[in-house]
Amino acid sequence: MRRKKVTLAHLAEQLGLSIQTVSKALTGKPGMSEETRSEVSRLAKSLGYLTKDQKHALAYERIPPYPIVRRRFVLLHNEQFVNFNRLLLAGLHDRFTEFGHQVEPMLLPPGLQPRDFEDWAEKTGLPYAEGVFIAPRMTSDEMEERLLQLPMPRILLNFPPPESKVDSVIWDVHEAVHQSVRHLLRAGHRNILYAGDATSQRGFRLRWQAFQEAMKEGGLSADEDAHAAEPFQGRLGPWIAKFMERFRITRPTAVLCAIDEQVAPVYYALKDAGVRIPQDCSLVGIVNEQTERLPALTRPMLPIKESGYRAADRLLWRLANPNMPYEHIRIRGDFIPGSTMLRL
After folding, report:
1. Cα 231 to Cα 140, 235, 236, 262, 284, distances in angstroms
2. What is the pLDDT along the chain (344 residues), one digit of tens a residue?
3. Are residues 137 and 224 in the same domain?
4. For the domain that residue 317 is a member of, what is the CATH number?
5. Same domain, 96 and 160
6. At 162, phi and psi to the nearest 5?
7. Which is it for strands 102-107 and 72-77: parallel, antiparallel or unpaired?
8. Does residue 283 share a domain with residue 315?
């Protein structure tokens, strides 16, 4: 059956807008609310409408806009980090739905050893997927290395290890930390306490390095011994005790908590100690998303869902261009002023 042609006129009629307004919304031109722009974009995606520029971009990357074959892809993840895996899966699903493909989440069993991986993969049908996405924070570096050796196109949703032969797409926490420090410095804060595991993951180490760089650019030092940068390792009590000890010694005017699962414990530890936020101490938290457990955080936005959406494009591109060099893509988010930071 021939695909029914969708035009700007069809979109305008369904939305009750002029053709000019719909065109401006889809081409990114100013002159309308973001709510209207989002509404137009959602309808265009659901109906499969593509602008000329979008068609040209797909043609350039040799991705068919209306594929005949429905492909099956897999998101490999573990059960410990459901939060950002849910957002990644939503982004992948949104993009693949536009092409008629499907993405299936596949949970790595806790305790699965690399030596047992092939048997497990065969039982789950993993070798028959046309491409895989490898989520962050796998059980071990050895397991991640085993996944990177899979014989099908792969996208690593993480910062790539050295010499890895894989495309990667990741939300840019390096930029997020720089944004956070710069906002605090512009607000007059010079005594900033870093809180967060700085060693156990590549992304964690990158955040700490970015903090040191940003502080140095502001003319300040960042000695690890003066900050709460010890490994978290899931042991909340001892880590919080060390954090509060650093807090009492340094008496910071602001805390930058850089790891999602440590932001809420830091906030409530300060609150239980009688520290008013932001009156006594400002707090910037790098979280995957805002939750009801916390006030409206001052924070950099981590575009996790958007990274999943972009990763879907990258895998389709890799299928069409198997011999092209590997690419590493970082997705940058905006900074969100919340209620937890005051200007000195």
Report:
1. 15, 9, 11, 11, 20
2. 344 567 778 888 888 888 888 777 777 777 777 778 778 877 877 777 766 666 656 555 555 555 546 788 999 998 766 678 889 999 999 888 877 788 999 999 888 888 899 999 999 989 889 999 999 888 788 888 999 999 999 999 999 999 999 999 999 999 999 999 999 999 999 999 999 999 888 999 999 999 999 999 999 989 888 999 998 776 788 899 999 999 999 999 999 999 999 999 999 999 999 999 999 999 999 999 999 999 999 999 999 999 999 999 999 999 888 889 999 999 999 999 999 999 99
3. no
4. 3.40.50.2300
5. yes
6. -55, 140
7. parallel
8. no
In this structure, are 121 and 214 located in the same domain? Answer: no
342 falls within a domain = no
pTM of the model: 0.80
Spatial neighbors of 159 by CB under 8 A, at least 6 apart, are 168, 170, 202, 203, 206
Domain membership of residue 316 (yes or no) is yes
Q: Which amino acid is at 127?
A: P
Domain total for the chain? 3
Q: Look up residue 247 and give its two tokens.
A: 């807090």
The range of the structural domain enclosing residue 93 comes to: 72-172+303-333
Establish if 339 belongs to a structural domain: no
Q: Both 288 and 252 in a single domain?
A: yes
Handedness of CA 233, 237, 241, 246 (dihedral sign): positive
Using the structure block, give the residue that is written with the tokens 């140095």: 216
142 assigned to some structural domain: yes
